[in-house]
Amino acid sequence: MELSHVRHSSWIPDGESSFLSSKCDHKRFTRLRVKLVRCSTTLASSPGTLDLLSPLEQLTTAEPRPVLKLAKAFAPATVANLGPGYDFLGCAVQGLGDFVTAEVDEGVEPGKVRIKNITGDSGRLSYEPLKNCAGIAGKSTMELLGIKSVGLSLSLSKGLPLGSGLGSSAASAAAAAVAVNALFGSPLSKMELVYAGLKSEAVVSGYHADNIAPSLMGGFVLVRSYAPLHLIPLVFPSGKQLFFVLAIPEFEAPTKEMRKAVPQMIELKRHTANCSQAAALVAAILGGNAALLGEALASDTIVEPARSPMIPGMAAVKIQSMKQGAYGCTISGAGPTAVAVTDDESKTEAIGASMVLGFREHGNLRAGYSVHKLSKDGAKVVESLDF
Amino acid sequence: MELSHVRHSSWIPDGESSFLSSKCDHKRFTRLRVKLVRCSTTLASSPGTLDLLSPLEQLTTAEPRPVLKLAKAFAPATVANLGPGYDFLGCAVQGLGDFVTAEVDEGVEPGKVRIKNITGDSGRLSYEPLKNCAGIAGKSTMELLGIKSVGLSLSLSKGLPLGSGLGSSAASAAAAAVAVNALFGSPLSKMELVYAGLKSEAVVSGYHADNIAPSLMGGFVLVRSYAPLHLIPLVFPSGKQLFFVLAIPEFEAPTKEMRKAVPQMIELKRHTANCSQAAALVAAILGGNAALLGEALASDTIVEPARSPMIPGMAAVKIQSMKQGAYGCTISGAGPTAVAVTDDESKTEAIGASMVLGFREHGNLRAGYSVHKLSKDGAKVVESLDF
């Protein structure tokens, strides 16, 4: 694990969890879908129509009491899009992410949150709760829980650089949602917490779940539809190797501008080609086939070609990583981070070095690289304090 | 199994086979891909560029001698597109298909084929070998084998109605390819025979493999790319139930006109939606989830909406089949056949009857229905005669 080149890096161990949804437990999954369908039809009749001003519908039958005084949660970085999986596929990676500590705070008006502290953001994030990813997700989680009797304060410790294409906003939101839920005994499932995260994402980078869902749930998550919201966890078989090499250049790609670069009309033949590559990507994930995963991830003919020229050096980074044995390489999220995949740990150093060199020589950008496994757990509580 | 309403129906038992490729044997699969890549780069540098006038490159190292005097093969009907899998996904179904008998014939010029007999086509198919699906595929298989010393005659028995959307041309081609290959001891794999079938398909309905590949290989097949040709067998888990209810109206939808109905430019949001549904379709197949398979298959927002109005009654057929418990329903191939899916055999009769009624009442079309399981085998030899 090479982290020394990455600014603001956080590391946390990530083993197997007993979280049912990410293991595709069908009985539980079905029960949840019913609830989500009911919820989503009232909340979000189509993508983008989430009412940002109205509170979320309460999912609990009665307001739960806090069972902890403090809960600290970690949520991992996510690689969304994965080439042809644009806007509907993402995965969580170990070793990078954000921490949020939620506390019951008598100094805060009941039903409200305040942001108590933010570190690791170089002073760039707002302390206004409804202008802060963690604040919005924390408040939205309180709405889902139906919390009206206590106020909470949140402390955010950013491990992820902003605007890096690694789901920085989603990680803050996911950590806040899990921490707030934990204070009340975690009555909501991670799938239910996706609603709180979606509200936060809608404010920051558009109504899309391909970062927030994997950051919460772990593994690969396919967003099949938004109305109703239907999330499908895709389990990469344990026992199969998969390494993500992330090269993060010192260059901020604003998510909204990168979205604008994507063509609004697609030729049929490109549509069909990308669809078949997305289908192959799913087959690769479920089959644990890292080579096919890399090939499919590198085969996007729509979004990557439009965005790649906006990230200096990206085209060279892709070519050079694959010359060093990466099965494929593409832009992580909306960039500028480049992600390459391999199942051979011994190649990761050469792949990472070639990517850093690519950014430097062809993009005149300083960059660092790090190597990550899939985070199967997603967001989780790492510390708690009883009353 | 209800077949009485279907004209020209053929039935053949279809059990488990030991065919390696359709079982995803990765070692063999990798070896084949190398060969196919080599082959495809010389034969077809991009979709549609297959040279219809030039012979296919020989894949054998030496011309094989015939080991049989006669071989009769059956190839199953196929359901292509499957909604969002437009042009890259198809599957083979049991109980419907074409037969081709290939014979070593001293009366035929060495290296050539002739069409000796055609039944079940109401006199509509050509006896000119290079204007007949079975003839083109038979001749192309001889080219792949390198046959120059003997001539062959082919007899075609059509079980599939023409222009029905069930891969009629592909079934004839697949049966011819398997029968000719069998005469020489079957040195070519089914994946290699796809090249012969593709040449035939290119003449009849465009250069696409989503019927010919599953008709040859069985099961579900994902066509990831054409240049190089990369076919991915998707194994629906044995032990999971899946029934296809096919309603075939008396209405011929010409494949080329149905292709023209498909929009050439796709809005980004529709592209993303269809991609995510195609991805879900693959997850459903590999997970043996018939409900999700049906939901995804019924969720195409691009091709089905464009073609459905051209098939009288189709919209009603879809709605009525789902009211009777089908998980989903869409157009099979380019139509006019409608395909509905369920995992509950007890519902198939009501689903089929509702589809027939839908075509009659809303489309003023007579129709029949039949119920089919997945054909895991694909094309196979059913009869042979030694010298």
Number of strands of chain A: 12
Helix content of chain A: 25-40%
The oligomerization state is homodimer
Rg result of chain A: 20 Å
Keywords (chains A, B): Amino-acid biosynthesis, ATP-binding, Kinase, Nucleotide-binding, Threonine biosynthesis, Transferase
InterPro entries (chains A, B): GHMP_kinase_C_dom, GHMP_kinase_C_sf, GHMP_kinase_N_dom, GHMP_knse_ATP-bd_CS, Homoserine_kinase, Ribosomal_Su5_D2-typ_SF, Ribsml_uS5_D2-typ_fold_subgr
Domain GHMP kinase C-terminal (chains A, B): 282-352
Pfam families (chains A, B): GHMP_kinases_C (PF08544), GHMP_kinases_N (PF00288)
Notes on the structure:
The structure is a homodimer of 387-residue chains. The first copy, chain A, is α+β, with helices and mostly antiparallel strands. Chain A folds into two domains: 21-234 and 377-385, 2-Layer Sandwich (Ribosomal Protein S5, domain 2), CATH 3.30.230; 243-373, Alpha-Beta Plaits, CATH 3.30.70. Chain A contains eleven helices and twelve strands. In chain A, strand 5 and strand 6 form a beta hairpin. In chain A, helix 2 runs parallel beside helix 3, helix 7 (268-287) packs antiparallel against helix 8 and helix 10 runs antiparallel to helix 11. The radius of gyration of chain A is 20 Å and the shape is globular. The two termini of chain A are 38 Å apart. Mean pLDDT of chain A is 87; it is low at 1-50. The interface between A and B is large, with 44 and 44 residues. Chains A, B: It catalyses: L-homoserine + ATP = O-phospho-L-homoserine + ADP + H(+). Chains A, B: InterPro entries: GHMP_kinase_C_dom, GHMP_kinase_C_sf, GHMP_kinase_N_dom, GHMP_knse_ATP-bd_CS, Homoserine_kinase, Ribosomal_Su5_D2-typ_SF, Ribsml_uS5_D2-typ_fold_subgr. Chains A, B: Residues 282-352 form the GHMP kinase C-terminal domain.
